[in-house]
């Protein structure tokens, strides 16, 4: 009988475990430590906490998108965060998230909770499908990212209330609230929508999933909350 070295078996088990987890790494750096915003980030948020948020957010997104296996997801090996001395709030390029130290420094309120919410939004951009169509339909992609932030419990107080907004694809909090309504009609709607976006965007996805035109759904949504 052929004997297998115990260390070899242990190594194989470790490799299989890593493969099952997707072997995604999460890393955060702060290049703005010489600014007041960068220093506030270090004091009130911290790199270790930020890396944990990237990991937690990714797991939450995989669950929201119904992607239990790495084969279901965008092929990403590493999610990174860089705190930089830039304007705006944050942006994502590929699997790299860039957070504005100026925004952190100027934020009045619980900056740790705010940064957590921003990172849930930006991490969604790392994992969502269909970003090749972002330029033509930004509202749907920003809406999905804010939907994730909403469902994770990090919607800030200044967001619109359910039923508010001018059009369904207005983006961000308006679209997030509308998608939440659509998901209430068919639990898992956002996961199904995200999966379809892999092949490009079409308004017909609402008909395919919910059986109604998106404009009718928007009218029903507005009516539910008093227009």
UniProtKB/TrEMBL annotation:
InterPro entries noted in UniProt: Uncharacterised_BSP
Keywords: Signal
Pfam families, A to Z: BSP
Signal peptide: 1-23
Superkingdom of the organism of origin: Eukaryota
Protein name per its UniProtKB record: Secretory protein
Source organism (scientific name): Paspalum notatum var. saurae
């Amino acid at each position: 009988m052929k004997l297998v070295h115990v260390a070899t078996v242990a190594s194989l088990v470790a490799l299989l475990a890593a493969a099952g987890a997707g072997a995604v790494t999460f890393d955060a750096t702060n290049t703005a430590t010489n600014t007041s915003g960068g220093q506030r980030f270090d004091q009130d948020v911290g790199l270790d906490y930020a890396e944990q948020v990237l990991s937690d957010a990714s797991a939450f997104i995989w669950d929201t998108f119904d992607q239990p296996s790495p084969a279901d997801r965008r092929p990403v090996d590493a999610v990174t965060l860089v705190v930089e001395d830039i304007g705006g709030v944050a942006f994502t390029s590929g699997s790299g998230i860039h957070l504005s130290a100026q925004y952190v420094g100027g934020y009045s309120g619980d900056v740790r909770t705010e940064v957590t919410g921003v990172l849930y939004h930006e991490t969604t951009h790392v994992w969502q499908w269909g970003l090749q169509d972002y330029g033509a339909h930004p509202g749907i992609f920003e809406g999905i990212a804010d939907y994730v932030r909403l469902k994770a419990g990090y919607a800030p107080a200044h967001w619109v209330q359910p039923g508010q907004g001018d059009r369904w694809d207005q983006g961000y909090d308006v679209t997030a609230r509308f998608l939440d309504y659509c998901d209430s009609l068919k639990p898992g709607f956002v996961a199904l929508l995200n999966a379809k976006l892999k092949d490009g965007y079409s308004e017909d996805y609402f008909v395919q999933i919910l059986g109604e035109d998106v404009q009718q759904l928007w009218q029903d949504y507005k009516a539910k909350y008093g227009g």
